[in-house]
Amino acid sequence: ARVPVPLSDVAPAGDAGRPGAPSAASVRGLTRRFGDRAVLDGLDLTIAPGEFVALLGRSGSGKSTLLRALAGLDEEVDGDIEVDGSVAVAFQEPRLVPWKRVRDNLTLGLDVPGPAARADAALAEVGLTERAGAWPLTLSGGEAQRASLARALVREPRLLLLDEPFSALDALTRITVHRLVLDLWAAHGPAVLLVTHDVDEALTLADRILVLDGGRVAHSWTVTARRPRHRDHHDLLALRTAL
Ligand code: ADP
Ligand code: MG
């Protein structure tokens, strides 16, 4: 994979897994065939609790296939997948159900007590309180993406899967949603697996950068010289004030 990660900013890393250590996700020998082609081919991957991992790779390298498998949305995979706690996923297109109001989109299929109150709390966190009763088609792109994040959040995931959630957004909205993701990550502490094509984005957000190639994790780097990032709430507030 020829992904131009600046090598001065990263160090080679192994798989984060140590035998017996807790993990948010542990994948062994994951294989997914379409016809006779193995898009995922014996893939191993461990994600530590609370770790923020960016996943790069060419179009068609199997990134979305991997996320669908981790989310339990694909029954045709072979291999072992262990996930600690709940998993939520936000896709590139927010995929809101158009005939359900925003609040009801968040609680679709959610089997918990007091779902509406939880939905409202999540909407408040992403700054969408006023849009709770709106129809999805009336939302802007950024609002729809925030609603999609709120829908993930309401499930209180220990593993949050983000499949290119920023790529359809304009540059300014992207910054807002970026910051929101960091904010949610800092506040809730899930492990995150973020698919992105943007190396700068990966270096800004992630602890570790993976490259998927040939159906496996072909490269794994720890980010050493991170772009300014703000896991700490205090820093986040300072950043907000500055922008
Ligand atoms: P990425 O997200 O990295 O761009 P995908 O995981 O979407 O790649 O797809 C990986 C490969 O698997 C592509 O070649 C794609 O055409 C193929 N693929 C994905 N889903 C299906 C499917 N349901 N049926 C057949 N081929 C598929
Ligand atoms: Mg994809």
From TrEMBL:
Annotated Low complexity bias: 11-25
Q: Does the keyword ATP-binding apply?
A: yes
Q: Which organism is it from?
A: Microbispora amethystogenes
Q: Which SUPFAM superfamilies match?
A: P-loop containing nucleoside triphosphate hydrolases
Q: Which InterPro entries match?
A: AAA+_ATPase, ABC_transporter-like_ATP-bd, ABC_transporter-like_CS, ABC_transporter_ATP-bind, P-loop_NTPase
Q: Which UniProt keywords apply?
A: ATP-binding, Cell membrane, Membrane, Nucleotide-binding, Translocase, Transport
Sample GO molecular function, one term? ATP binding
SMART domains per UniProt: AAA
Coiled-coil positions: none
The reply to whether Cell membrane figures as a keyword in the UniProt entry is yes
Q: What ranges does the record give for the region Disordered, renumbered to this chain?
A: 1-25
Could you identify this protein by its name?
Aliphatic sulfonate ABC transporter ATP-binding protein
Q: Give all residue intervals belonging to the ABC transporter domain.
A: 25-239
